[in-house]
Amino acid sequence: MKDITPKREREAWRGKPTQTEPWEKIAAYWSNFAADMPQLEPLHRFVQTIASSPLSSSVFGRITWHGIALSDTPDFRSTDNTLEIDYFTPGGHFEFRHRTFSGNDDRKMVKASEALETLRLFLKYKYGVLIKIPEAESTRRDDRPPCTHAT
Fold first, then answer.
1. Which long-range contacts (CB under 8 A, 24 or more apart) does 42-49 make?
2. In the chain, which ranges are continuous DSSP H helix?
3. Residues 13-45 pLDDT 10s
4. pLDDT of 94-135, one tens digit each?
5. Which three-class secondary structure state does DSSP give residue 105?
6. How many other CB atoms are there within 10 angstroms of residue 118's CB atom?
7. Could you tell me the end-to-end alpha-carbon distance of the chain, in angstroms, rounded to an integer?
8. Which residues, 6 or more positions from 42, have their beta carbon under 8 angstroms from its beta carbon?
9. pTM
């Protein structure tokens, strides 16, 4: 039997229930911030890509201090099967952190150019949600045609 005893004391409360918001509202929030602070434009583009894709009907999100938090359920708790995605302007990188009640968290830091692919992999592995990365946002490094099989 797997031990699900929280590794951190604060995890014992499973975090607070979160209030999700429509993706259009989340995208508009980061758009307004990026208008005043151009260094946040990569975060705005990232959120806008989610908001304008079919993914927006499969995952639920909310605004955080440095980015967004999302889950595959609309009534998620802040530390229970939540994917937190933060953007840090110094260095221009994204941090992905999948948080669980048990404290067995996964974390990855990537450059802005790798953020959508990292999101795709987290969603596929953690939630079973398959998304296609828009060609304009992909990070293909050569002129080969894109792969045509579904992933």
1. 42/87, 42/92, 42/94, 42/112, 42/115, 43/67, 43/87, 43/94, 45/137, 46/85, 46/87, 46/94, 46/112, 46/115, 46/116, 46/119, 47/23, 49/116, 49/134, 49/137
2. 23-36, 41-51, 115-122
3. 556 778 899 999 999 999 999 999 999 999 999
4. 999 998 777 778 899 999 999 999 999 999 988 888 877 665
5. coil
6. 17
7. 32
8. 87, 92, 94, 112, 115
9. 0.77
